[in-house]
Amino acid sequence: MKEFKAGGQDRNEEARTEGEVMEKFGVCHTTLYNWDKSGVLVPVKVGRKIHYRLGDVQALLERRGIK
Question: What pLDDT shows up at residue 37?
Fold first, then answer.
């Protein structure tokens, strides 16, 4: 779990790593890439690493009915 500055704003948000998101949804890198390109789940780059906002992940979980 990481905190980062999102969108140039000075607010701290929790984030999930690529691996955590893949495990939670049971998907691979290719699916995350496709979700990014289609706008389903947009990543945030922190340095060279890819993270996903916790709020975005939770919203997608709710839409897909996953707990």
Answer: 97
